[in-house]
Amino acid sequence: MQDQPPYNEQELLRQLAEGSEDAFRVLFHAYRHKLYAYILKLSGSAETASDTVNEIFLRIWQRREQAEQIGNLGSYLFRMAHNEAYQIFRRRAKETLILAELQKEKGMQAGFEGEDRVTHREVLAFIREAVNKLTNQQKQVFLLSREQGMRLAEIAERLQISERTVKNHMTSAMKFLREEMRGQYGDLATILLLLYPLAETPAFHAAL
Predict the structure, then answer these.
(1) CATH class of 9-85
(2) Distance (Å, rounded) from C-alpha 143 to C-alpha 159?
């Protein structure tokens, strides 16, 4: 049985609707880490996760007069987080399509069909080579998260380290991998890393 929170959430929402900054602060601290972990898992970007959490709570504050109408705040916040992540991926997909059109206009598409499989293998090989340059724990955390889909808490339990340490390793790993790939793939580096767990799917191929 889960422990009940040490506060009355509906009462805090009522106070928030009346403009209470203290109520807002309590709710922010109660949910920010959970939302951050959720968005980080979806996006693979600590910066995106942090910015999205801030954006979500900014909207909550801007709409605070309606706060009392929220039935289940946890479900409401995670639905917002999911929708935000979806919009992020839509924007990135649109940017990828624009890049593809630019390539086509420059005549870079010629011969693509006969060479795409080699290109995909080369990208995967590049990512895996970069992953092998990570420290041992960074590599373990990255692979458990991105290839096995484990949550921060599960990784922490598996490796017998704290969730904060897991988060720090993941952030450092993603920063290193982006820098390694940026020199080779430019602005596509982040997208290719995001799609890495889907590397054998058409979505990964489309990013190229």
Answers:
(1) mainly alpha
(2) 12
Per-10-residue mean pLDDT, the chain, length 208: 62 91 88 89 80 85 88 89 77 59 47 43 82 94 84 92 93 90 74 57 40
Instruction: Report CA 174 to chain centroid distance, whole Å.
Output: 11
* CATH code, residues 111-206: 1.10.10.10
pLDDT at 95: 57
Q: Position of tokens 């979505």? A: 203
Please choose, from the candidates 134, 191, 142, 199, the residue with its C-alpha nearest in 3D space to the C-alpha of residue 170: 142
Nearest residue to 152 (alpha-carbon basis) of 164, 136, 140: 164
> Where in the chain are the domains?
9-85, 111-206
Q: Could you give the C-alpha distances from 118 to 82, 112, 114, 115, 194, in angstroms and in order?
A: 34, 10, 9, 6, 20
Residue 12 CB burial class (10 angstroms; 0-12, 13-18, ≥19): buried
Tokens found for residue 22: 């203290």
Contact between 52 and 88 (Cβ < 8 Å): yes
CA separation for the pair 118, 99 (Å, rounded): 20
